Each structure stands twice: as C-alpha cells, then as structure tokens.
Amino acid sequence: MNYTENYKGIKVDVQSVHLDLNEGIQGEIRSSIDKLSKFTSNINAVDVYFKNEGSGGTAVSVVGMRVGIPGPDVFAEEKGEHWVPLLKDVVDKLVRQLKKVK
C-alpha cells in the first residue's frame, strides 16, 4: 500500500511493501509529523517506509523515515516487532538529529 497526502503543507509519502496500513497507523504518522514540526518549521516532505524483512519466525518489522528540510535531510530507521513503537522510536531519533541541526 502506497499513498501520498499533503498534511499541513508537508508532502507525506508512505510506502509499505505488501502491507496494508490501518487508520491508526496513518494517525500516528500525522502525530509524528506534528511532533517533528515542534523542532523545525522548515519541513518540506516526509517519506515513511514500512516493510517486513525475513520470513517465518525470523521476520522483523522495519520502519524508516526521511524528513526533508533545507540542507541535508535527516533519516532514521528502527527494527523490531510492532509498528507504532517502532515509529515512535524513529521519531525520537529524528528529534535528536533535528536538535543538532539547529
């Protein structure tokens, strides 16, 4: 499932390989963008990637997020089991990077 939306003037591109994301995940993405917006007002675009690596008992979920800002973009990725905690961990990593950029 892939979709693109304009959220508060920010182009949001979500890609999930062989996965369907529910409204709850989409809401989490929007609240993540709200949180990131507190640390910089210059976000142009956000790309979010959801995918599963491996198969069977060794499968692991991966969430990555790239935030387009003037200058070098910031990117973070996290691996684990559940989408929402992974997304929150990725946002925390991005917040740390945005604080360094300021």
Rounded to the nearest angstrom, the distance between the terminal CA atoms is 34 Å
Major sheet summary line = 5 strands, mixed
Integer tally of domains: 1
- Could you spell the SSE succession in H and E letters? EEHEEEH
Overall 3D shape = globular
Query: Helix amount, in percent?
Result: 25-40%
State the CATH class. Alpha Beta
Number of helices: 2
- The CATH architecture category equals 2-Layer Sandwich
Uncertain regions spanning at least 5 consecutive residues: none
Describe it for me?
The protein is α+β, with helices and mostly antiparallel strands. The protein has one domain (about 1-100): 2-Layer Sandwich (Double Stranded RNA Binding Domain), CATH 3.30.160.100. About 35% of the residues lie in helices and about 35% in strands. It is built from two helices and five strands, in the order E-E-H-E-E-E-H. The protein has a five-stranded mixed beta sheet, covered by helices on one side. InterPro entries: RHF-like, RHF/RaiA. This is HPF/RaiA family ribosome-associated protein.
What keywords describe this structure?
5-stranded mixed sheet, globular, alpha+beta, Double Stranded RNA Binding Domain
